Amino acid sequence: MATMEFGAKVPEYELLFEELSCVVRAEGKRGEEKTILKNVSGRFRPGRLTAVIGPSGSGKTTLMNILSGFRTRGVKGRVTVGGKDRVARDFRRHSCYIEQEVAMMTHLTAHETMKVASRLKMPESITNEQKDKTVRISDLRVLNSNSRISNFTPPL
After folding, report:
1. pLDDT score, position 105
2. Do residues 7 and 46 share a domain?
3. Cα distances (angstroms) measured from residue 69 to each of 1, 54, 110
4. Glycoprotein among the record's keywords (predicted)?
5. How many domains does the chain have?
6. Which of 106-110, 111-115, 152-156 has the least mean pLDDT?
7. What is the pLDDT of residue 145?
8. What is the maximum span of the chain, computed from C-alpha positions, in angstroms?
């Protein structure tokens, strides 16, 4: 178990996904389907930074939406948390997924973006001070937490 700075014990679980596939209706074509993901497997280990990398349109956002429980329609495969089948509704209640549109607020630093997300997602019973303490960008050595997100976006 990990301990948050304000003393709450937080269980650490491995998230495992096996043979995930996602099929959607093709836009503008009646009855046709498009495969977005096909037999994708992987895992997220507790205490480890994991990057999901791929070209535009490769299914990264779809994968994250499936893992977080936001997408369930057209999905096949298995997702487990701590060795047990993940129940999407329960998982959403106990986890925080910062969607791409929120994470790319170009006028905020990475640290500020995480603070905004924690204040929006965490329950009102937790004080803003406690929420801010849960944001530990210093553990994420990939980005300088004082840099603006736009600094990492290449010019067009």
Report:
1. 62
2. yes
3. 23, 21, 24
4. no
5. 2
6. 152-156
7. 47
8. 55
Contacts for 152-156: CB closer than 8 Å, 24+ residues apart: 153/106
Range of the domain at 44: 1-95
Q: How many CB atoms lie within 10 A of CB 151?
A: 12
CATH number for the domain including 63? 3.40.50.300
pLDDT of 51 over the 50 cut: yes
Q: What is the pLDDT of residue 47?
A: 75
Q: Are residues 138 and 69 in the same domain?
A: no
103/91 same-domain check: no
Give the CA distances from residue 152 to residues 82, 91, 106, 156, in Å, rounded to whole numbers and listed in that order: 34, 31, 10, 12
pTM: 0.63
Average the pLDDT over each of 5-9, 81-85, 99-103 and give the range with the smallest value. 5-9
- In angstroms, the CA 34 to CA 37 distance is 9
